[in-house]
Design a protein that fits this description.
single chain; alpha/beta; Aspartate Aminotransferase, domain 1; Aspartate Aminotransferase, domain 2; seven-stranded mixed beta sheet; four-stranded mixed beta sheet; 16 strands; globular; binds ligand KE4
């Protein structure tokens, strides 16, 4: 048996930072990342044989729980007939029809292999359709690692964006304007001055990448009316919220119809699938029909689509989302009460099957609020819970996820462990 520490040390010799995605390196919370070997339902087992209750769920995809027997057999069934053709398959048509059925704003959809590909392609499509270069995003929202989305607010939010990563040319970043989430006056001011130059606005309609933040109704309504008025496209990045906060995602929850939607995570059931879709008039601009090029060797991969189709079938069972949401609320209410019981400045909230934990008196409504929460306390809490076999996201800036496989005893055990962790924080 190889332990987590040795594995991490050796991995760092062959993989930058020892991980294939930065958040996994525990950089934000410190300590040694856990190397997992297997999982089933709500449980994970690491290489040392230790068991954990999983509240990351692979950052959202494992909504049914790990290794769901029907998903595994769907994958095994399809894998027998080759893993990829690089040509159209009937199964991709089935997936497209399923997405169009579940998300009414999507009249046509294109499958890709990650959320990043979905948002990168949607941005290019919006620019090609409107023939405008400027795009708008919000500080704290993450949309994958395409160059034009790795941009933070410039000196003034209404001026040029600044790269938030090395390797992103200033000439690329300058077309991205970054505003404050939930700030309606900034939005109005920007559109009044530059509205006719804006190709699109992209946002997480419930934010999961600066911890969980919900939009105000005024913010969403202003976004929809201003983009409509100035001919900009409204893109809901539902890679995380799609099939998670409700079957039809945040757009179903809030009753807002975006022009384009990006999807990922749940749609692949744990295998690489992303998607972007929307109005047919916009989607027709895509190659091979239109001038906006976009492509992918493994787009619509039959094995990945089989996992996604089975997952989408199973989450449409009656009561799936009401049960998932109430289980998640039981968790956040229990954690909030446990924090209050120890007199800790702590709160938690959920939207459907995703939740946020905050070491602050009130849930945050903005990036500034999130930055004001107590990261040290979160990091201490994270490691205390990890030592008791509870696996939350290794960052104070990530949302957590509950699956259909989590039992009420998992939830109750988590709350009991939190009480112990809070009592140590108080001491
Ligand atoms: P991927 O390229 O990682 O499949 O998707 C990018 C993406 C796009 N949009 C939203 C709203 C997302 O949350 C993501 C990816 N989410 C992170 C979790 N915070 C993935 C975890 C990671 O980066 O390892």
């Amino acid at each position: 048996m190889r332990n987590n520490k040795d594995l991490f040390e050796e991995s760092q010799q062959f993989i930058p930072g020892g991980v294939n995605s930065p958040v996994r390196a525990f950089g934000s919370v410190g300590g040694t990342p856990i190397f997992f070997k297997s999982a089933k339902g709500s449980k994970l087992w690491d290489e040392e044989g230790k068991e954990y209750i999983d509240y990351i769920n692979s950052w959202g995809p494992m909504i049914l729980g790990h290794a769901h027997p029907e998903v595994i057999s769907a994958v095994q069934e399809v894998a027998k007939d080759s893993l990829s053709f690089g040509a159209p398959t009937a199964r991709e048509l089935d997936m497209a029809k399923e997405i169009v059925k579940i998300v009414p704003s999507i009249e046509q959809v294109r499958l890709v292999s990650s959320g990043t590909e979905a948002t990168m392609s949607a941005i290019r499509l919006a620019r090609g359709y409107t023939q405008r270069d400027k795009i708008v995003k919000f500080e704290g929202c993450y949309h994958g690692h395409a160059d034009s989305l790795l941009v933070k607010a410039g000196s003034g939010a209404l001026t040029f964006g600044q790269p938030s990563s090395a390797g992103v040319p200033i000439d690329t970043a300058k077309h991205t304007l970054t505003l404050s989430y939930n700030n309606v006056s900034e939005l109005e001011e920007l559109f009044k001055s530059q509205g006719n130059e804006i190709a699109c606005v992209i946002l997480e309609p419930v934010v999961g990448n600066m911890n969980l933040i919900t939009p105000s109704a005024e913010f969403l309504n202003s976004l929809r009316s201003l983009t409509e008025k100035y001919g900009a496209l409204l893109i809901f990045d539902e890679v995380m919220t799609g099939f998670r906060v409700a079957l039809g995602g945040a757009q179903e929850l809030f009753g807002i119809t975006p022009d384009l939607t990006t999807l990922g995570k749940v749609i692949g059931g744990g295998l690489p699938v992303g998607a972007f879709g929307g109005k047919k008039e916009v989607m027709q601009k895509l190659a091979p029909l239109g001038p906006v090029y976009q492509a992918g060797t493994l787009s619509g991969n039959p094995v990945a689509v089989a996992a996604g189709l089975k997952t989408l079938e199973l989450i449409q069972k009656p009561e799936f989302f009401s049960e998932l949401s109430s289980k998640t609320k039981t968790l956040v209410d229990g954690l909030t009460n446990a924090g209050a019981g120890e007199g800790i400045s702590f709160c938690a909230r959920n939207v459907g099957g995703m939740f946020g934990l905050y070491f602050s008196d009130n849930p945050p409504n903005s990036f500034a609020d999130v930055m004001a929460s107590d990261r040290e306390k979160f990091n201490f809490f994270f490691h205390e819970m990890l030592s008791m076999g509870i696996y939350f996201g290794p960052s104070a800036f990530e949302a957590g996820f509950v699956s259909a496989a989590h039992t009420l005893s998992d939830i109750q055990h988590t709350i009991e462990c939190a009480k112990k962790a809070f009592s140590k924080i108080k001491a």
